[in-house]
Design brief:
The complex is a heterodimer. By secondary structure, chain A is an alpha/beta fold. Chain A is about 55% helix and about 5% strand. Chain A folds into two domains: about 30-120, no CATH class; about 145-445, Alpha-Beta Barrel (TIM Barrel), CATH 3.20.20. Chain A is globular. Classes of the chains: A alpha/beta, B alpha/beta.
Chain lengths: ~500, ~250
């Protein structure tokens, strides 16, 4: 079987360095919360809907809190004791000003605590049910073999997306992402309801999730394969999106703080805090997460900075495990982005892909196609993708984003997806067991390259551990982009937890 | 002149498209008839494939009927002589005598920085260094999804000599709308003469850029030194007179 013998001591070392880095971040996270974490609690308690001006009710309730340092859970439990009605009605009454909202309102703290526990138990049960349902579907429809063929639709109109998604599934896609409307990651709220206008993608809303999941259930039935739905828990509403996704039985979420910090300029404190809660939710609801390391290679060179992908994958694995995600839920990202003019570029790609496989043997790695060197010569681009397909099946990647020949020209046409999936289907079929048959030459180009990248990742992690992850990002160690600790969007939504802070859902999920 | 397949003036063109009809013999005939309406002859529908319920994909060859007198073709080519990294630095130092400032961004909702990064970042593109690497350039790459206002404000703040506007991926011709909006704001602010303004991206041609009021347009395959050559040539041509002395 394709295998590169890496020194076990070094694997243990890099894993332990990553674990230390994750611990360090966790110490920081534990002291703080954010407005979006608080809104997530409300959503999981059962608060939904929006006001006439579009403001979601969870946002409004959190805004109404005079003092947020002890969180929203206690005052909301107090309000429920007052109304003795369900969370949604209680929230509406708070907004209408029909009941007081803020303090404990004279109820005994034990009674409040008890109410919070009941609410959080009900919330966790809903997450558990989401996981059960996924298990049932996997049992009934079966998961196809890896690499899973992953494809993106993005029309802006959820009803149009439904048609595109079904056609992609019929052409062979196993996982479908509805790409989000551009810059949704910068909205500090989750839009409400079904949407038919978006730019460069379709808004992630709970209703849109539901519409799409229903469409994919229909096509799964028809195709006899479980077609999984992907969306994005990133940006300023990581945890809220994770909650909405769990409630609508989504299967996969892009979930990576590092991506948000570097490529969307989200404040790093905010996003590390939000990420932790979102990952706890994903772990409980059985949602697979994808990370975005592949993006580093769109700004940095894929040979010079391959190690940053490896280092970041290791850190993402460690922080994910800290939130209870198991190996089978870790779609750690990497990519096929080496300059095709380099001699033996394909060998280096194999080295990088096999290195990821060796370091994370049980994770469904997310492998991204070439984008940087895609040419507007669509025929050449198709050749590039074909070699990517071969690297993927040979090194047994988990989640395979199908490359498109018209990348860098337009959002894919229906025929582009068909063309792309034809190449994937062809290569996966003719080379299905190639990886089982070959061995990489000892001391050869591939093994040497893999070891070199591991050495560099090792050094990088030592340095990150030394100065801390936040400082490393601030110094531009990842993707050659510098982001200051106090910079970026969303810092104003971060707060230090007060003495009486309470988030019973987080306690239950830890 | 006609398209060339394997014999002069055979006019052979290959087409690929999807029709919103279910796969059938009738669909195939419809594809042939449609291509004939496009004014092709000797049409052969070589590939027909169902790509989804109610959608069929075709690959078609046909012979084009019209011909074109090549001597009547007029195009606004960028007339700048392209120089190397070293020649450009030398000219900035000896003839311009100050650092040039360039601001770049991908505007609108386009999230792709591939184009602007290739031109501006240290690394550059295809072995050609990016503007950031030039000692004679002070560069500000604002990344993607930058609003037209922010880009113009930044350009004023740093007294930019050149503004590089990029649009990579487009949907329903959004790149043209975005390029136009930026130029409109520049014109409304009466700042057009303050900057050399370049448009770049996968769908950009010099013709399009000129039509939209830009100084030049750079399409696929552009190297950073091409953009730099254009900027310094423009400055030497006297566009610099409008700038306050730095």
């Amino acid at each position: 079987m394709a295998h590169i013998e890496l020194p076990q001591w070094q694997i243990d070392k890099v894993k332990s360095l990553a674990k230390d880095i994750a611990e360090d971040i966790q110490t920081f996270i534990d002291k703080k919360s954010s407005v979006s974490v608080e809104r997530t609690i409300l959503r999981l308690y059962g608060v939904d809907g929006a006001l006439e001006d579009g403001t979601p009710i969870p946002n409004k309730i959190v805004e109404l809190l005079d003092n947020i340092e002890n969180g929203v859970s206690r005052p909301f439990a107090a309000a429920m004791l007052k109304t003795r009605q369900n969370p949604q009605t209680t929230a509406e009454k708070i907004i209408k000003g029909e009941i007081e909202f803020g303090g404990l309102q004279g109820f005994h703290p034990d009674l409040i605590k008890n109410t919070e526990i009941l609410l959080s138990r009900a919330a966790v049960k809903r997450l558990d049910m989401a996981k059960v349902l996924k298990e049932i579907k996997k049992g009934a429809w079966k998961l196809p073999p890896q690499p899973w063929r992953y494809i993106i639709v993005a029309s802006g109109n959820i009803y149009e997306d439904r048609i595109q998604a079904k056609s992609a599934a019929q052409a062979g896609a196993d996982m479908i992402a509805v790409i989000r409307s551009t810059a949704q990651s910068l909205l500090d709220y989750v839009p409400y309801g079904a949407t038919t206008e978006g730019y460069g993608g379709t808004y992630a809303t709970q209703e849109n999730f539901k519409i799409m999941r229903e469409a994919l259930d229909e096509v799964s039935q028809k195709e006899g394969r479980y077609i999984r739905l992907v969306n994005y828990s990133s940006g300023l509403c990581m945890a809220e999106i994770a909650a909405c996704a769990a409630l609508e039985d989504l299967d996969v979420l892009l979930n990576d703080s590092m991506y948000g910090i570097l490529f969307r300029d989200i404040n790093m404190q905010r996003t590390f805090i939000d990420q932790y809660f979102s990952r706890l939710i994903c772990a409980r609801a059985g949602i697979l997460i994808n990370t975005g390391e592949d993006n580093y290679l769109t700004t940095s060179d894929a040979m010079e900075k391959a190690y940053t992908v490896t280092a970041s994958d290791l850190i993402n694995e460690a922080t994910a495990k800290r939130a209870g995600l198991t190996d089978d839920l870790l779609g750690l990202g990497h990519a096929f982005e080496i300059d095709p003019k380099i001699e033996n570029a394909f060998l280096y790609e194999l080295a990088h892909a096999q290195l990821a496989r060796e370091l994370f043997p049980n994770a469904p790695l997310k492998y991204m196609p070439p984008t940087k060197y895609k040419s507007t010569d669509i025929f050449f681009s198709h050749c590039l993708d074909t070699m990517f397909n071969l690297a993927s099946v040979t090194t047994k990647q988990g989640i395979h984003l199908t490359g498109l020949l018209t990348e860098a020209i337009h959002t894919p046409l229906m025929q582009d997806r068909y063309q792309s999936l034809s190449s994937v289907n062809y290569v996966f079929n003719i080379a299905r067991n190639l990886g089982d048959e070959i061995e990489f030459k000892k001391g050869g180009i591939i093994e040497t390259r893999a070891k070199e990248v591991l050495d560099e990742a090792d050094k990088c992690l030592e340095e990150v551990k030394e100065i801390g992850l936040m400082e490393s990002i601030a110094r531009g160690r990842f993707a050659d982009i510098k982001r200051p600790i106090e910079g970026g969007k969303g810092l104003d939504g971060v707060f230090e937890k007060g003495k009486n802070y309470s988030n019973p859902i987080m306690e239950a999920l830890k | 002149m006609k398209p060339y397949g394997d014999t002069l003036d055979d006019g052979i063109v290959q087409l690929a498209f999807t029709l919103p009809v279910e796969y059938s013999e009738k669909a195939k005939k419809a594809a042939e008839m449609y291509v004939s309406k496009l004014n092709f002859e000797d049409i052969s529908v070589v590939h027909t494939k169902k790509v989804a319920d109610g959608f069929t994909y075709f690959v078609v060859y046909g012979k084009a009927i019209p011909d074109l007198d090549y001597s009547t073709v007029k195009v606004s080519e960028i007339k700048t002589k392209y120089m190397t990294f070293y020649e450009i630095n030398e000219i900035i130092e000896s003839k311009i005598g100050r650092k040039l400032s360039a601001v770049g961004a991908t505007i609108g909702t386009d999230a792709h920085t591939v184009g602007i990064d290739a031109i501006m970042n240290m690394k550059g593109y295809h072995g050609d260094y990016g503007l950031e690497r030039y000692p004679g350039f002070e560069t500000y790459n604002m990344g993607a999804q930058v609003s037209v206002d922010d880009l113009l404000i930044k350009a004023q703040l740093v007294s930019a000599d050149a503004i590089l506007v990029s649009q990579t991926v487009t949907q329903k011709n959004a790149h043209i709308k975005n390029f136009s909006r930026f130029m409109q704001i520049v014109n409304n602010s009466k700042l057009r003469n303050n900057f050399i303004i370049l448009a770049g991206g996968a769908r950009v041609t010099n013709d399009l850029a000129i039509k939209l009021g830009y100084d030049a347009g750079f399409g696929p395959g552009t190297l950073p030194s091409h953009a730099a050559s254009f900027i310094i040539t423009k400055i030497l041509e006297g566009k610099d007179e409008n700038k306050t002395q730095s």
